[in-house]
Amino acid sequence: MKKILTTLTIFLLAGCGSHIDRGAANGASKLAATSTEQLALIPYPESVTRLPGTLVLHNVVHVEAADGTATSTLALKNLLKTLDITRDTSASTQIQLYLVDEPALGSEGYRLDIDQQIILSANTDTGLFYAVQTLSQLLPSQVQAHYELPNTSIIDSPTFSWRGNMLDVARSFLSVEYIKAHIDRMARFKLNRLHLHLSDDQGWRIEITDYPKLTQIGGASAVDGGRSGFYTQAEIRDLVKYAQDRHVTLVPEIDLPGHTQAAIASYNELACDDVTNLAPYSGLEVGFSKLCLTDPDTTYTFVTDVLTDIVKLFPSQYIHIGGDEIKDPLYPEFIARATRIVADLGRTAIAWEEGSVADNDPDVLLQLWNDKYDIQPALDRGHQLILSPCSYSYFDHGNYQGQPNTYDWCRKEGVPLERAYQLNPQAYTQILGVESAMWSELIHTDHTADNRLWPRVTATAELGWSRAENRDYQEFLTRLNALRPMLDAMGIQYYREPALNW
After folding, report:
1. Tell me, which fold does domain 6-156 have in CATH?
2. pTM of the prediction?
């Protein structure tokens, strides 16, 4: 173990009667264990060993944190603060954060041992951060007179390195405040990639230095009934830092060479001379706009300039270039050139699976959204996949068949929670990870976004992290039901899933 270099002392305040939620204290959040003897944890850990008894936290908890654990220590302090924590120098019960050297844990795994003390250990600050998230699910979400934790030994690490969710902010804008809240919620469930769809026909949402009209014109448009707006570069830097502190990587997408009407309306020269539709667009149809691929000087200068700014703003190794829903004889050439532009900027491109027709380097990552697409030729060339098949992962589709203001073009029955949980990543090969998506043509408020995302995003979290043998839908429902107070405490306006009796 690495030497402990800093020490914090913290105690849990007992007897705060005016602050105690008596209903919660007597309810589901009293002890995070389920009737099936599983702990109420999502995603479910790799290994859980239940030990006899419980740890009761009274008055004083002494926290020791190793040097190099800034984010996990801050996460722990914030967790305890929600339970009305003040500091004290004396302590009998301890919470210890250790950095260790255990190769089996990898870069994101951790151990959590609860007995006479609470010991969190990991190879990295990231692993310790995830240990804190597990501890947060074991603790109640409301202040109580004392806190009981099951004596437990957990050894945990993720199945996939990419555990993502995509927000389409191009059709209908989402505020910085909402994005930050979503990052907090993702981190609680160990999701680590937030894919932002920043441009489309209906809007352009990010400031680009040499093209101010992209936000002046493209940022002012939106889908009919949706919200317009854009992120300044300063706001993007702030979001990137906020996400990094929670071990979430922001992955930007600039959709190219189609889905570009907002860019064309801002700079008409991006369209070919025979194109007459040069105005902002607020409709629902797609597949009609594209950059002029027969004018390479204009098109590739624009693409290079935009991607150069994107790379400066986002430290993500992967930069998404879109590449879906376009028919053009020069399309394969464009995708190949665009992925090389990203490579020349020192990053790796992602494209929707249609981009696999291009002559790409094998390290280009492909995102599979079309369940029926023949991706095997791309796998044979060495490409890896982000798994987002629409019939399991598109959360703009209904929580139930016929839900108002939802799509059903991919699956007429919608994508209920059970369907989302049924995706089996292990049935695919060369998978980097999983990612659910929420397109925003029909999602115009924060409440609607929450309704479409939650609780289905918790299924994404479990698919991305938990071992296949640890996944069981009925047990998942039991655990999710026990975590409802936590969702409430985070302010999530979730869909009231009938299977959960919500």
Report:
1. Chitobiase; domain 2 (3.30.379)
2. 0.93
